[in-house]
Specification:
By secondary structure, the protein is mostly helical. The protein folds into three domains: 10-58, Orthogonal Bundle (Arc Repressor Mutant, subunit A), CATH 1.10.10; 61-101, no CATH class; 106-139, no CATH class. Helices cover 66% and strands 0% of the residues. The chain contains eight helices and no strands. The chain is elongated and about 65 Å long. Keywords: Cytoplasm. Residues 59-99 form the RecX second three-helical domain. Its main location: cytoplasm.
């Protein structure tokens, strides 16, 4: 008997979704995309994902919270996190609420990231200072001022 290459039954779809959720939290849209890539039909995938939401096993709120925590621990700021979450299909209102509720001092994190990357402090030359500011913007600290 040959192994299935597509997810044909609701049980297959649920099992595949549970396997993915066992590794880490996923957003609804992210999990839907992955299931479709594995061969699940769109309608059957939606039904199973809705059941996972009802069962409390899939939650965009929980995904947002875990994602913000993990990425901020790696030195990424709110602007970058906002964009990454948007790309993962999380609603704008949920992203804004999650960032506001995050137990994170963004200015202190920005200062810490800057000090780690630039131990010599703020550059005197405009070109080097621009490089520092671009780095901070890339990391998601758009309002950062290196004074």
């Amino acid at each position: 008997m040959r192994p299935r290459t597509t997810l044909e039954t609701p049980a297959d779809i649920r099992r595949s979704a549970m396997d993915l959720l066992a590794r880490r939290e996923h957003s609804y849209a992210e999990l839907q995309r992955k299931l479709r890539q594995r061969g699940a039909s769109g309608d059957m995938a939606e039904v199973e994902l809705d059941r996972l939401v009802e069962d409390g096993l899939l939650s965009d709120e929980r995904f947002c919270e875990a994602y913000i925590y993990a990425r901020s621990q790696r030195g990424y700021g709110p602007a970058r996190l906002r964009e990454e979450l948007r790309q993962r299909g999380v609603s704008e209102s949920l992203v804004e609420r999650s960032l506001a509720e995050a137990d994170q001092d963004w200015q202190a994190l920005a200062d810490q990231v800057f000090a780690k990357r630039f131990p010599e402090g703020v550059a005197r030359e405009p070109a080097e200072r621009g490089k520092q500011l671009r780095f901070m913007q890339y990391r998601g600290f758009s309002g950062f001022r290196a004074d």
